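> Could you send the Flavin reductase prediction when you get a chance?

Sure thing. Input:
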Amino acid sequence: MTGGGGPSGSRPDEHAPVTPDWTCGSCGEEWPCATKRSRLLREFQVDRASLSVYLGSCLAAATQDLRSAPVSALQDRFIGWVPRSRRAY
Ligand SMILES: [Zn+2]
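Output:
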């Protein structure tokens, strides 16, 4: 949205995932951290389907990276927090 200025790349408050550990690059929590989750909801509030697609691709990548983690736990972590809209279908 706003171009912010400065070099592109990771910003200190971007809360981007750090792979292959999938921790947050800004606060060190498991990604998506609470800050990132609320940002994603705001960013995708009119297009929840795209959010699901995006998180699904993150989950797929994380499943490759975090092979020791149970898939169900990863699903909860990446997708389970998204509020479901009952009117979506
Ligand atoms: Zn964070």
